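Input structure tokens:
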């Protein structure tokens, strides 16, 4: 397994991965379809360069990814990361890929002196089992306010 950062050179492989994910488990995706042109545009857009996607590849094929961004708090100087998305293709699960993605992500956190990270996790049985194996982590049921502006 190798890890790569999403960029213009591997965006088509990423799109192929998304198409597979969408066809296998559309109910878990946050979009109804794969916007190829939009993704190719966003990978070059300076705004989206603040978001990092680490791709897990096996035999040259993208089989999983973790997407995150870093941010900081002015008041206390905390450096934090938010994990936007973690997903491994169904046929590649239970092979250590998600753990590998989190390990790569945590290396990036250490390099950037991140104090903590968090994510809004899925609460299905498989996700709960996965997240319960994290060391030095806390699972909570946090209330969330979400307001859509568009």
């Amino acid at each position: 397994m190798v890890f790569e950062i999403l960029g213009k050179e591997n965006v088509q492989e990423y799109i192929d991965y998304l198409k597979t994910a969408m066809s296998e488990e559309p109910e878990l995706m946050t979009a109804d379809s794969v916007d190829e042109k939009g993704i190719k545009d966003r990978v070059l857009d300076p705004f989206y360069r603040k978001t990092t996607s680490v791709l897990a590849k096996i035999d040259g094929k993208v089989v999983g990814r973790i997407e995150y961004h870093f941010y900081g708090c002015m008041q206390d100087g905390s450096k934090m990361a938010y994990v936007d998305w973690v997903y491994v293709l169904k046929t590649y699960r239970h092979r250590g890929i998600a753990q590998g993605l989190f390990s790569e992500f945590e290396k990036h956190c250490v390099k950037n002196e991140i104090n903590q990270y968090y994510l809004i996790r899925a609460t299905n049985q498989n996700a709960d089992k996965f997240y319960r194996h994290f060391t030095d982590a806390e699972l909570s049921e946090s209330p969330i306010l979400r307001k859509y502006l568009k």
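Residues 97-111 form the longest helix (15 residues). The beta strands are 2-5, 51-58, 61-72, 79-88, 116-119.
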